[in-house]
Amino acid sequence: MPATSFANLIDGDRLWARHMALAKFGAREDDGVDRPALSSVESEARAQLVSWAREIGLVPFTDGIANLFLRYEGRNPSLPPVLAGSHIDSQPTGGKFDGAFGVLAALEAVQAIIARGEQPLRSIEVVAWTNEEGSRFAPGMSGSEVFTGRKTLDEVLAIRDQAGVSLGAAVSEVLSRDVDIPVRGFGFPVAAFVEPHIEQGPLLEAAGIPFGVVTGIQGTRRYRVRVSGEAAHAGTALRAERRDALMAAVRMIAEIDRAAISPDDIKLTVGLFQVTPNAPSVVPAEVLFSIDLRHPDNSIVDEMDRKIRHFVEAEHGPCTVEIKQIAHAPSLAFSTEIRSLIAAAASAEKIPSMEIYSAAGHDARQLHYVCPTGMIFIPCRGGISHNPAEWAEPEHIVAGTKVLAHVVWQLASRP
Description:
Elements: H1 12-22, H2 40-55, E1 59-63, E2 68-72, E3 82-87, H3 100-116, E4 124-129, H4 142-147, H5 153-157, H6 167-177, E5 183-184, E6 192-198, H7 203-207, E7 212-217, E8 219-228, E9 232-233, H8 245-260, E10 267-269, E11 273-276, E12 282-283, E13 286-295, H9 298-314, E14 320-329, E15 332-333, H10 336-348, E16 354-358, H11 364-367, E17 373-378, H12 394-412
Helix pairs in contact: 1-3, 3-12, 8-9, 10-12
């Protein structure tokens, strides 16, 4: 059966219906999705995925950090499998497609391969990685980092959310809800990994191109800065004697922001900002804020890192300050072999494509270090993501899934 037969085996209506069904888990009133990692609602979405997988004969597995694998057995189960998928956790103001598209496209691609009537040589596993977003447990990509050995299980399980719940406790709760899902060890060999995703940027839409072959991911550093001062009465404490944590934090952020304004288009974000005691008539005693720094050129990221540290130290005044880098991921380029397979599959389906660099981080970053890895992008309206208005067109979802089925089949057919 020729490869182009996958065009008729992808069921677009079923694929769209599954997107809409999964979006009900954590549905917001504004049509968005709030599905925190390792929450009860994500656990319910996980159970739905397992149900769909079992209906078509896939076998579920998990591991010590609750990564979910849905396995279609190959003719030689001893060979390293091909993995495809993404994640199902969301930001608090998330949409229906970030992460979910990758998992559901992989599931549909495997269902198409099963409908093809030929068993691949290698097993194929649909994967939903744990805590990609990092909105509840920071930093994100916990599941893929532990799976690939980039971090140890113990250090990740110790992370706590804003309510003080440890990631370890949340994992235990999720695993306790699983029904007949065996727990496997980490670090088994993987033949290849392909992650489909919405672009989360405007380039594909602006170019009028429905498909992107991702060349790599830009570098990032992420920090938490804690400024400690002293609470005081707003009406009686003299300015000269105050240890105002908020004013110190504002000075730091202003200088860092000015340093990031350059022709190099450095992405700098302060998205988390907490003031204690956060009372109108009290001089702030403590401020905790985040810094998210990104750029494709590692040398620019490294130089900005030095500036951040300089201004944090230079502007704390009478307060004390602690800066902690919680994540560092250099820019990378994906496997040229996988990129070529993806581009050729798009061509075979007569789907126009272009090469594109990922400005956002993805679990594919971690898999890149242990196996040939690639990513597929489809457009999202206006480049909007992490927002209830996030939208992907049904025909683009189908196009991306057709290409994925081609690529996964080819990778799983190789000795």
